[in-house]
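Quick start: read one record
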Amino acid sequence: MATPQDDYLHPDVEGLDRDNIVAIQRRALTALGQRLAADPEWTRHFATAGLDPRDLEDPQALAALPTLEKSDLRERYPFPLLTVPVDTVARFCATSGTTGLPVVFGFTEYDLRDLLANQMMRVFRTIGLRPDDRVYQGYTGGMWIGGVAMDIGLEGYAATNFPLGPGRGELAVRWLVDQGHTAGFMSLLWYMRLLAMARERGIDPKRDWKLRLGLCGGQSIAKAIQDQVEAALPDGFRAHDLYGSTESGGPVVAVPCPHSHGDDENHLINEDTVLTEILDPETLAPVGPGEVGEIVITTLAKQASPVVRWRTRDLVRVSARPYDCPCGRQGLPRIGRVMGRSDDMLKVRGVMVFPSQIEDIVAGTEGTVEDAWQIYIGREQDRLDELEVAVERRARAGRPALDIAAAVRTEIAARLGIRASVDCHDEGVLPRYEGKAQRVIRRQS
């Protein structure tokens, strides 16, 4: 008789209850503290809180430590918090650098071939990838962690990898037909672009492509866009939200199982090697079920460039029932998708607004191009009286641009209680993004 654990890659971990996962984390924190105690930079960091790295053996010590910010990493340029000699690093990966100089993180051979490979393979098994799947790997390589992690994980999993990366859309839409890819690992924005290009070339993705599952990370995207991608592809296709970062060691933090996907929630799938705190962004106190908090990361097993209490600035809602999933992963709690960043939050006449809320409204408005929109703000972000929003009218939309703009404006007022001026442009005017989209544009005057 089949049991939920038949779907686990690591049943000795994934089948544990929360108390046993916490016990693993405490042992790992003790070992991490012993390693960090040999590093002068980490010893100085702990000393700012009157602690020694070996104090991590006390379960209360972690909460007493200061958090890490991007400024902490940039102060330690060029190799921040590197705990091994540079000549023992097998590979460096970099952050995106969207808000400044990219920061590099080292990976030892163990970090890549053992730790990261197993973390990614667990992700793949959780979403239902099979070794006989043909995977269009649509994440870039080079210094960025996404494609590196996918390639290493797929190599260990034995699925067939087509590492095309982003771009070259004309080739991609043809290969999806000719090569019969059954899984597509790429951002939802790139899915949207490929769907549009396929239709322009007379290809019906629902009929002509063979995709059955997707793995979509890179940035927070509205659920409405995910729903549209799923509806446009072969029946049964599911686009699984994936969360992680260079600082966490890769896209390894959270992913949905078949049960949590329908609730738009993800399991913290690698909690035995990546400890995740969900904290109030102002008080840094833990939030409870159903509450919104910021993801704060501690890498428990990474040898090179570990982080302890790294502030991601990403905000999520903890599931109302985080430990109650039919898949049986009771020790790996569920969280919602990233709803915004604490440092991207806009305050309009005292109302907190996240770009993802605007994206939901745009994507749900008839006649818009769902992945084409911008927010414009003045130089003084803290004193906004209204938002300026730009959208596009789909070329074959059955309603005028003025009607679309009015509908978006009305929905923003109804849902968020704020005023917005909305301009609706012809399709193709606003920028398109293959990777992370820059949605909030600050005017220079």
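Residues 18-36 form the longest helix (19 residues).
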